[in-house]
Write a structure and sequence with these properties.
The complex is a heterodimer of chains A (about 180) and B (about 200). Chain A is about 75% helix and about 0% strand. The longest helix of chain B is centred in the last third of the chain and has 26 residues. The chains are: A mainly alpha (about 180), B mainly alpha (about 200).
Chain lengths: ~180, ~200
Amino acid sequence: MHNDSQKFSDQYLWEAFCYVAGELSTSEEECFELRMLEDGMLCQAVQYVVRQTTTIAAAQGGASQRVARVSVAANVSAPAVARSSKVFAGLVAAACCLLLAVLTASVELSPPQDEQLAENAHQAELLVSFWTNESRLDDASDPESVDLLNQEIDVPEWLYAAVALPSPNEAGSGKAKAEHVEDWF
Amino acid sequence: MPQDFEIRQLVEQACVEFEGDLRVFLSGVLRDGHLVDDAFQRCVMRALESATSVRPETVRGWLFRIALNEARAIKRVDRRQGRLHHSVWQAQGATDRVDSADGLQLAVSAEQKEWIQQALGRLCENHREVVIRRIQQGKTFAEIAQEIDRPLGTVLTWMRRALAELREMEELRHLNDQSSKANSNSSIKKSDGLNG
């Protein structure tokens, strides 16, 4: 079988490619087809280009036709995969941000236990000083006294218990109070 | 008449012998495998109807002209209905068959793929990029020009030069020879089937 590719010019080759590739307008296609009716060499050029380009297209991976068709027609598969990857990455990022926000909020709402204990100790000291320094309360000019008067002190339970415990001199009444204390626990 | 019978037989044999080439040609004109079947059948019928008017030495060209006229008639109808594909490789459906109904070798063997890759590898980078993007990725020349930041005229020139270079490469000559032989063998088998 003769080699058709050797018989026609590069110009014919290019024109045939433009025709096969759909690069010509409708009128240009009409003209080209009329020329083919009169020129067998142009028909051979078309034949050659079809074989060459379809083979090149088919040689791309395993589904070259699908890729060519999809990339020309709809651009569906590759962008869809990219979109789904981006969506997944976005979801992960959003989840991380949400988790971080939750953790931050929980840290802000619940201060560390060390701070809580220190606060309790401070309030306890205030109570002690309140009971032991009554005279200071009369001095309204003392800022600390004013603060003490105005401050709403959260009295811890252990302090109530300590106050309720009987002294060595009050054994009798202490029992009753102890019983009362036991009710608390 | 005996002479008419001989001419008719000659035309029949030519239809079988050139079936592969005709189908490939029709694919380039119609860009649709289903239309190729229809066009080829019409071509054969028309050729047999007007067999007495052909000269034996010009039967091949005569058949191609008949095929082209039939294809143009089909295209006129399909163009009105907006069903034409843009390019021939866009029109190919996904198939694992080696030979489709239109005679194109759609499935490429590993060896042929190697040849094509070698041939493309021997092109200069610019030419190779344009060929891959236009034929394998199906992008338009305008899109390619924009992507690689080159003038449209430059891209078209590169494509033209690439086609000329590929034609001279040994690898693609092997492919064309293989395709031609495959079509010839197919035609011979069909001819034997008719005669036997």
